[in-house]
Amino acid sequence: MPITVNYQSQIKIRQIGLGLWWRWLIATWGGFVTSLFWIEIGERPDLGIIEGIIGSMAIATPQYLILKPYIYQASWWIFATVISWGLIWLSGLGLVGWIAPQTLQLSLRFLYGIVNGAQLGLCLGIGQWLILKQHIPHAQKWIWVSVLSWAVGLSIGWTIGGVFRQFTHLFIGDVFGLAVTWLIVGGMTGYALMRLLYFLPIDIEPNHIINPK
């Protein structure tokens, strides 16, 4: 049976697309900056599970506030994100979003960024997909967006961090590089989220909860 879509409601949903992207970008990047009040950027062995919980909650909480008007029981997003980061840490990959590689060789930083970023994006994407799939059609695309976002973001961020660290001889260069990483990840995942919600054929006002079940 074909779905009837109210044209005016669909237009209103589409008009908030770019606003959603900006809010998601600010929430993600701002969450990373906020996490630095409790987490000191370090190398892989320096950060433990406590830092993972704090950092992931700092990221996931503002993201939850963005998702809340659009999906039912969005608070599960925080739980899924925290658990995913915990499993990433237990896997030995480490808290990649808050660590810098030991090497200053730019080609290796770029390569490691692609590999580690893709691994991180896959783990995190699967955990978050388990929440999104309950409410959004074709949510499996989120996994591949997460893989691509983190592979691109981490490789560029670690490379930029290495460049600044070579010029300044200060570890703050890697902090700046990771800030670039989170900016890229926030922008790419925000665009993907906007597109997923953009094509929802739902006859409701955009500030109502989306629950297609």
Question: What's the quick description here?
Answer:
The chain is mainly alpha-helical and about 210 residues long. The protein has seven helices and no strands.
| Total separate domains | 1
* Helix percent band: 55-70%
Give the SSE string. HHHHHHH
Structural class: mainly alpha
Low-confidence stretches: 1-16, 202-213
Strand content: under 5%
Q: Characterize the biggest β-sheet.
A: none
Q: Based on CA inertia axes, which overall geometry fits?
A: globular
Structure description:
By secondary structure, the protein is mainly alpha-helical. It has one domain (7-198). The chain has seven helices and no strands. The protein has helices at residues 7-15, 17-35, 49-67, 76-90, 106-132, 141-168, 172-198. Helix 4 (76-90) crosses helix 5. Mean pLDDT is 84; it is low at 1-16 and 202-213.
